Amino acid sequence: MRNINIKELAKALNLSTSTVSRAFRDNSDISKETKDKILAAAKELNYQPNHYASNLREQRSKTIAVIVPELANHFFSQVIHGIEGVARARGYHILIYATDDDYEKEVSFIRHLHNGRADGIIMSVSGEANDHNYLNELNQQRLPLVFFDRVYEDIITPRVITNDYDSSFSAVQHLIKQGCKRIACLVINKNLSIGKTRMQGYLDALEKYNIPFDDRLIVDCTNSYKRNNVILKDMFKKLKPDGVFTSVERLAFATYYACQDLEITIPDQVKVVGFSSLEIAPLLNPSLTTVTQPATTIGVEAASLLFKMLEHPESVNVNEKIVLDSKLMKRNSTAVGTLKKR
């Protein structure tokens, strides 16, 4: 049986095409009885509404873009899951773009989205450059933007973040209470707001417990596992830390690999804690102590903010900042016991 078009359906029901169209858009100005009649006839006569054409007429793509630094990090996968649930409930699809922490890719994606491909953007930034003026073009073209997790402080737009300072302070404090006195802080980008905030938590925890600060123990790492392995093995050999605080998930794995190569035992010779949303963290050997962010909730909150901007822009505070709490999950990588010298 062939698909009929909207004109044929309207003629069969002796209704106008606009009335039929409003029934499929769930408009409130059409009675439930009429709507039910139209939907029943559509099913019987094999009518399929063309939502894409309708969206074009309304100048809406019914799509939102999600821009993340990477997909391998479980945190971002969970955030995307939260976003997708909110979007799907509103009849929207999501497009996912991974920048691989490449600023040029980020700029390219944003400019590509100006062509109407998406109605709004949810983004965790790359942070590889200080010039973010290209994002101001969004305001001129009225394309809503919400930041999450990693943000640009000089761009005014709603954002969803976690209590990174408090979480970092608690993680380093935990290492200190477990007997660590030479704690390395592993970072990838000290200049990004989230890197600065987590590093400040580290520094303030050392100060509170009167532990001397050694700037060599703040170790710049990269997005390359291979390069990080070299950097961290060099750090362990030269600086001999007894604790490691990793500011991002991949650096916790890099620490485990470097310790394995050097036959350094965790937690007897070095204790490790890091930001991670990995569900397998308890299954690692030893199980990894983590700062776990509420990733799915972050996605839900970010998507809800974006739809608020789309549906009720007059009610949105561009300075709105939602701060969610992370949890310190204590496991065997920081287990109590006497630290053994190497």
Condensed summary:
With 342 residues, the chain is α/β, with parallel strands linked by helices. It contains twelve helices and twelve strands.
- Identify low-pLDDT runs: 52-57
| Residues in helix, % | 40-55%
* CATH fold-type name of the largest domain: Rossmann fold
The share of residues in extended strands comes to: 15-25%
Under CATH, the homologous superfamily of the largest domain reads Response regulator
Name the structural class.
alpha/beta
Please compute the radius of gyration using only Cα atoms. Answer: 26 Å
Summed up, the domain count is 3
Please summarize the sheet with the most strands. 6 strands, parallel
Average pLDDT for all residues? 88
The CATH architecture of the largest domain: 3-Layer(aba) Sandwich
State the total count of DSSP E strands: 12
CATH level 1 class label of the largest domain: Alpha Beta
Specify the number of helices. Answer: 12
